Amino acid sequence: MAGKSPSTAPQATVYPGGRRVGPPASGGRGGNAVLLDFVLSLVMAVPTTLTGVVAYAAVTGGSPLGTGTAVALLWGSALWCSFLNQVLFGRWFGGSLGKLLLGLGVIRAEDGGRPSFWRLLRRWLAGLLLVPLALLAVVLDLDGADVATGGVLGIDVVHRRVPEGPALTLAARAALQEEKGERDRPPSQAERKARQREKREWRAEQARAREEREAREEEALERYARQAREQRAREWRERQDREREARRRPGR
Fold it and tell me: Which residues cross the membrane (predicted)?
């Protein structure tokens, strides 16, 4: 299979000082990584919760753990696993498990370096409050991907693989994203009304053209029918003239 042309292939970003990083991840891919991280946090929390339930039963002589307590233990374990996944893994390995599995990583937006512990911690705390709304925005194709992936806190999500060849500077990347955003911007109400008006005018023009074409066809049919009637009338008169001429001939 042929590769992408140089003009359409994703390009690396080069930061001041020559640091190269992979191209930015799309909002959909970043949102998928967030969903995957959420599922992984719950999955990793299940063994901890089961261990707590078993330990409680052993200490209390077999008494079952209450449902509310078990749910609280599950969510507490999920929060701890989320902290480990988002903050510590992001600091140690350059990305959470979900991002690493999807070939993504996190960087500092200003210089392309690995985010600090405190920046990742702020991003994680903000995510606990904002990610549900951001995920809804991603699903609805709104501008919520930056919230879900951390872009609003100076953290960018990029592809870990750094393409070879020419790279874009930060200014060129920003201009390209602005151009893409303008191109992908949904039409305004005035633009939608203008398009609807153009569509109505086009339909009216097509209807007029169809009516004119049908009128010309009907006129042509009438002209053909009139010519056919006139031709039959001439043939009938000629036949009558021949018969009268034959009757007037001598010997008949």
Answer: 38-59, 71-93, 124-142
Cβ atoms of residues 158 and 13 within 8 Å = yes
Q: CA–CA separation, 160 vs 189, rounded Å?
A: 40
Inter-CA distances, 81 with 37, 51, 114, 178, 199, Å = 10, 15, 21, 36, 55
Helix (H) or strand (E) holding 21: strand 20-21
Residue 102 exposed, middle or buried by CB count within 10 Å (0-12, 13-18, 19+): buried
**Dihedral Cα 149, 151, 152, 154, nearest 10 deg:** 130
CA distance 126 to 166: 35
Nearest Cα to Cα of residue 174 among 56, 3, 15 = 15
* Domain locations in the chain as residue ranges: 12-186
User: DSSP of 212-244, one letter per residue?
Assistant: HHHHHHHHHHHHHHHHHHHHHHHHHHHHHHHHH
In this structure, are residues 124 and 85 in contact, taking their beta carbons and an 8 Å threshold? no
DSSP E strands in 53-176: the ranges are 104-108, 155-159, 167-169
pLDDT in tens, 10-65: 788 888 877 888 888 887 888 888 889 888 888 888 887 787 777 767 767 666 66
Residues 6+ apart with CB under 8 A from 37: 82, 85, 86, 96, 97, 98, 99
Q: How far apart are CA 250 and CA 252, in angstroms?
A: 6
